[in-house]
Specification:
By secondary structure, the protein is α/β, with parallel strands linked by helices. It has two domains: about 100 residues, Alpha-helical ferredoxin (Fumarate Reductase Iron-sulfur Protein, Chain B, domain 2), CATH 1.10.1060; about 100 residues, FAD/NAD(P)-binding domain (3-Layer(bba) Sandwich). It is built from ten helices and six strands. Strand 1, helix 7 and strand 2 form a beta-alpha-beta unit. It is globular. The two termini are about 25 Å apart.
Length: about 240
């Protein structure tokens, strides 16, 4: 697993140089081309000023997966594609800066900001992939009582079972999820959504509707073709999506 090493002079210098390279554009084309509408130039400006925790808190307004998105998002087709710097040269490496701030938050145990008021509304999230954990995080930030139902032993969905280690280190994923769960989110692992069931480890929408005020379905299209070979149904064997 990757150790988060942020204190090397070389990495810090690279981050500072990359942040200074940003023009802090007023019209923010990088933000408008981001699916999450991250305040990209805003957080990079804070990085320039070495106000790293404030940069993290600003990113938390639109994302809770900074270390992950900074590594795997298609930046060259989105925010970096529209970077003004890219017109006559290389665009700002926004992904690298975002990942650095996310890693710094993990290293320093910076919490995700949340409101103090609590709601008595209960929300069930079905599926603990990127959509499910993000939805759960933003609901929990607003004070709702959230429970995630996940069919596997671990949260993460495609992040955990579909992206190789060299693209997304498992330790980074685990640390990011731990930070999200600190918002007070409950987890029910090894639960499958079924139409009708009385078995342990299975749930139905009808049952959930009786217990929760709202349900968010985020299980994805993750049923793979079967190969019909021995051992295919064993734990730890995953189909190709």
């Amino acid at each position: 697993m990757e150790k988060i090493n942020l204190n090397t002079d070389s990495r810090i210098n690279i981050i500072k140089e990359e942040a200074q390279y940003c023009l802090t554009c007023i019209n923010k084309p990088c933000s408008t081309s981001c699916p999450l509408n991250n305040n990209t130039s805003g957080f990079i400006k804070l990085v320039k000023e070495e106000r790293y925790k404030e940069a993290y808190e600003l990113l938390c307004e639109t994302s809770v997966l900074q270390s992950i998105c900074g590594r795997i998002c298609p930046h060259t087709k989105q925010c970096q594609k529209n970077c003004i710097r890219g017109i006559k040269g290389e665009p700002v490496n926004i992904g690298m800066l975002e990942a650095y701030i996310g890693d710094l938050a993990i290293l320093n145990n910076w919490d995700i900001p949340k409101i103090e008021n609590k709601s008595n509304k209960k929300i069930a999230v079905i599926g603990g992939g990127p959509a499910g954990i993000t939805c759960a995080a933003f609901l929990a930030k607003e004070g709702y009582q959230v429970t995630i139902y996940e069919k596997h032993e671990k949260l993460g969905g495609i992040l955990a079972y579909g992206i190789p280690e060299f693209r997304l280190p498992k330790q980074i994923l685990e640390d990011t999820i731990k930070k999200i769960l600190k918002l007070g989110i409950k987890i029910e692992n090894n639960y499958k959504l079924q139409e009708n069931t009385n078995s342990k480890g299975e749930i139905t929408l009808n049952k959930l509707e009786e217990e929760y005020d709202a349900i968010f379905l985020s299980f994805g299209a993750n049923i793979s073709n079967k190969m019909s070979i021995e051992g295919e149904e064993l734990d730890g064997v995953y189909g190709r999506k």
